[in-house]
Amino acid sequence: MPRLVLASSSPWRRQLLDRLGIDYQCAAPDIDETRKPQESPAALVQRLALSKAARLADQFPAHLIIGSDQVAVFDGDILGKPGDETTAKANLRRFSGHSVLFMTGLALLDTASGRHWLTHENYRVTFRSLTEQDIATYVERERPLDSAGSFRMEGLGITLFDKLEGDDPNTLVGLPLIRLCQMLREAGLDPLHRHPHEDAGA
């Protein structure tokens, strides 16, 4: 059985992790994602990322579990998944012509030793000026109701932007692969020096 576990049901995160060519399992943790009073965006995404990994620890002993969480930060507000069309459209109206900061928390938990690695990565998106038709058409076509920021960068969301700024574009999709590879190497699992789909427990 693979030793690596992705604590997520997101198909987008799975697509990113597939790029590393390592066998892994997926499991969706059930956690309370409510923000604590006065909790900063960075603290929130790191706490939730680690909580997702920790929730699966009993289910996956002697595994490496990846947890990740993302929020958008705009004009002092912390925005998660819109959940419905009205909220998605309202978010995109606010973002039109402005820059939005996305924070993605990343955790790697070694359940055998209890050791964990934890960080967050920032990525800034500048939206072009969007018309009401742009917004309505985008939301209707892509249905980004389960995506922080109300768009999917890996799909038609790319048509909404003027500029992207950050160290790792994968961060915007929800899994910072550059930092994850660093964590995996520190945990003794180097994606580059494994044969494709080699059992991570070997």
From TrEMBL:
Point out the annotated site residues (description: Important for substrate specificity): 12, 70, 154
Looking at the keywords, is Cytoplasm present? yes
Q: What is its EC number?
A: 3.6.1.-
Question: Is Hydrolase set as a keyword in this record?
Answer: yes
Cofactor(s) it depends on: a divalent metal cation
Q: What class of enzyme is it?
A: hydrolase
Q: Which Pfam families match?
A: Maf
Listed GO MF terms: nucleoside triphosphate diphosphatase activity
- Catalytic activity, as annotated: N(7)-methyl-GTP + H2O = N(7)-methyl-GMP + diphosphate + H(+)
Q: Which residues form the signal peptide?
A: none
> Which GO annotations describe the biological process of this protein?
nucleotide metabolic process
Role played: Nucleoside triphosphate pyrophosphatase that hydrolyzes 7-methyl-GTP (m(7)GTP). May have a dual role in cell division arrest and in preventing the incorporation of modified nucleotides into cellular nucleic acids.
Name this polypeptide is given: 7-methyl-GTP pyrophosphatase
- Top-down, what is the taxonomic lineage of the species of origin? Bacteria, Pseudomonadati, Pseudomonadota, Gammaproteobacteria, Oceanospirillales
